[in-house]
Design goal:
With about 180 residues, the chain is α+β, with helices and mostly antiparallel strands. Helices cover about 45% and strands about 15% of the residues. A 4-stranded antiparallel beta sheet has the order 2-1-4-3.
Length: about 180
């Protein structure tokens, strides 16, 4: 009996934990709808990210994923650490699936939101940035191999290769509450 009660309590706590964690991460999502990305665009983004790494002497790997987080294009420089191949893809997946830079999850974690660690598929490390074309999130770029800030600089170079994109539509503020009836 005690074991069943203990398992029930643990299950309830786990469900509440994941619900709260997902709401906190959702609060910062970009309002953009998803759209498609093609190989030519993905290659252009990765090439720009790799060029930024070369320019600065950083051995990096760059991954470009579609809006579902599936790999479209990947490139790595010689002598890039092996782990960076996976980390770059995970940073990109995080940015695409959560509709925000992976740094926002890192910042939430640094601010004490330990719940971020329990969100499936979340990689709370700077270096993944969504790709927006014509107001739609078409995927994301992730870079790994240098420091997180340097990875983000390379990712931003990839994003910048797409040219200036229009700002995403602002989220509508909630309607004010109705005045109380007397």
């Amino acid at each position: 009996m005690k074991t069943a009660l203990r398992l029930t309590c643990i299950t309830v706590v786990a469900i509440l934990f994941l619900t709260v964690a997902s709401r906190a991460a959702h609060a910062q999502a970009m309002p953009n709808p998803y759209g498609p990305i093609n190989l030519e665009v993905a290659r252009k983004v990765a090439d720009a990210a790799i060029a930024e790494g070369k320019k600065n002497g950083w051995n990096v790997a760059a991954a470009v994923v579609d809006s579902a987080g599936d790999l479209v294009f990947f490139e790595r420089m010689d002598n890039t650490q092996s782990a960076s191949m996976i980390i770059a893809q995970e940073k990109a997946r995080t940015a695409a699936r959560f509709k925000r830079p992976s740094k926002s999850l890192e910042d939430a974690l640094a601010g004490g939101r330990q719940a971020i660690l329990g969100i499936p598929g979340a990689t709370p490390v700077e270096g993944g940035i969504p790709l927006v074309i014509e107001g739609k999130i078409v995927g994301a770029v992730g870079v790994s191999g240098a420091t997180s800030a340097q990875d983000a600089q390379c990712s931003q170079a990839g994003v910048d290769s797409l040219g200036k994109q229009p700002a995403p539509p602002a989220a509508k503020p909630p309607a004010p509450p109705a005045p109380p009836k007397k």
